[in-house]
Amino acid sequence: MAQLTCENLALGYEGKTVVSDLSFAVNSGEYLCIVGENGSGKSTLMKTILNLKTPQSGKITTDSGFAATEIGYMPQQTAAQKDFPASVREVVRSGCLNRVGLRPFFNRAEKQLAEDNMKRLGIEHLAKRCYRELSGGQQQRVLLARALCATHKILLLDEPAAGLDPKATAEMYDIISDLNKSGTTIIMISHDIEASVKYASHILHIGNGESMFFGTKDEYVSRGGYGA
Amino acid sequence: MTDIIDRLIFYFSFSFVQYALIVGVLIALCSSLLGVTLVLKRFSFIGDGLSHVAFGAIAIAAAFSLTNQFIVVLPITVISAVLLLRTGQNTSIKGDAALAMISVSALGLGYLVLNVFSTSANLAGDVCTSLFGSISILTLSTLDVWLSIILSVLVIAVFLLFYHKIFSVTFDENFSTATGTKAKTYNFILAIVIAVIISLAINLVGALLISALVIFPALSAMRVFKSFKAVTICSVFFSTICAALGIIISILAGTPVGSTIVAVDIVGFAIFSLIGYKRG
């Protein structure tokens, strides 16, 4: 059963169509990498999947495991976060909010979940540190821990390795790969085609006409990739 | 020193001085609560724009010779706040330009309305009072005091109830929306609360100085503290202490209340900056 199916999507912003005729499906437990040129519409696609934007045309169908309250999302960092006074624990806990409903405070289980996820990503010793003072790799781990608090079913990641040094990048990919092996569906935007081919089960190459591709990693490699 | 204390005791035997202190501290508390969010969401300019709108509303109230200006000021400010936040979210309309337009329009038309319709003998004095606060806080009626207390309690309650949501929406609106927190609803609530605070604060410091009450506590606390909770708590203390000090100094020295509070805020900010700098 496909967790997410997109049929004949057309995406764009401010009236311009960036990509059209986009169709693909993601099943539970798969690892999809979305690659493509800058401006090809990768982030727009992710925002559309997340319901932050509406597609210009086409249809997105999701199964019941894909409600907004069961999505984990790791966006790219925003400018506002660069001087935001927040401790690591505060940021990670905010991932639990979709379980809270109208209750004003977190309960013990939610707090524990945040602690567990910090431990899982090796940042529990940073819990009291200020988010903005961490290194890029540590910040990404914090955002990933927050995303894990929101779900364990499906994770959407927007360039999780952006701005990281090679060591931190490799660590980040390993963490994501481990999460996938433990059953979490991964949909990830990446610039790094080499790493995408190494870790992903499926590849979606966004482009127009001929360069559009969706299929398994092996099919992608046998076609010689695109832009690699 | 004893002389000063004697004078303070003497002044505080008057109920209007007590009212001024209670209301002043409450307003300072409320405005500091949301200061952090406003500064971080780059909304500080909205507070400034809204205060101009509130001035326009006061002018209309004065033109109709309403004794309780609050009845006019509050709804107009709330509606403007909601509209402003809407335009801010729409990227095709430049939020700051729209805001600048609305605030100068309100200011200009407000003064025009006052000039044409006001029956007051001291027009310049009225305008100055609305813009800089001056004495109005010492002439609060019991109704004003109760209204301020009730609205302050509401603002504090809303803040406490939605504390974690406000944090999440401020830190990362896309993430909140994507994971099912209704960011738009909370932005809407924020807009209303901001408007309520501004309508209240116009009594204390006047239209032009409201932003100081919102921005200084948050910025000062952010110099020293590193977590959202600590910054919020620190801004509340910073703001209430500065407001109380400002009111007391203004009573003793006979200076205008609003500008004295702002002066104390500036000194406080300087001290916190120094502490933050020393800590590295």
A few lines on this structure:
The complex is a heterodimer of chains A (228) and B (280). With 228 residues, chain A is an alpha/beta fold. Chain A has helices at 42-49, 88-93, 97-100, 108-120, 136-150, 166-181, 193-199, 217-222, and strands at residues 2-13, 16-27, 31-36, 57-62, 71-74, 154-158, 185-189, 202-206, 213-216.
Provide a descriptive summary of the structure in words.
The complex is a heterodimer of chains A (about 230) and B (about 280). Chain A has helices at about 40-50, 90-95, 95-100, 110-120, 135-150, 165-180, 195-200, 215-220; strands at about 1-15, 15-25, 30-35, 55-60, 70-75, 155-160, 185-190, 200-205, 215. Chain A has about 230 residues and is of the alpha/beta class. Chain A folds into two domains: about 1-65 and about 155-170 and about 185-230, 3-Layer(aba) Sandwich (Rossmann fold); about 85-150, no CATH class. In chain A, helix 4 (about 110-120) packs across helix 5 (about 135-150). The longest helix of chain A has 16 residues, at about 165-180. Chain A is globular, with a radius of gyration of 18 Å. Chain B has a single domain (about 1-280), classed as ABC transporter involved in vitamin B12 uptake, BtuC. Chain B has 13 helices and no strands. The longest helix of chain B has 26 residues, at about 15-40. The interface of A and B includes residues 68, 75 and 147 of A.
Unreliable residue stretches of chain B: none
Structural class of chain A: alpha/beta
- Low-confidence stretches of chain A at least 5 residues in length (pLDDT < 50)? none
- Beta-strand portion of chain B reads under 5%
In total, the number of domains of chain B comes to 1
**What would you give as the CATH superfamily of the largest domain in chain A?**
P-loop containing nucleotide triphosphate hydrolases
Please tally the β strands of chain B and state the result: 0
CATH topology of the largest domain in chain A: Rossmann fold
CATH architecture of the largest domain in chain A: 3-Layer(aba) Sandwich
Global structural class of chain B = mainly alpha
In the CATH scheme, what's the topology name of chain B? ABC transporter involved in vitamin B12 uptake, BtuC
Instruction: Name the beta content range of chain A.
Output: 25-35%
Characterize the largest beta sheet of chain A: strand count, sense, and whether it forms a barrel.
6 strands, mixed
The 3D shape of chain A can be described as globular
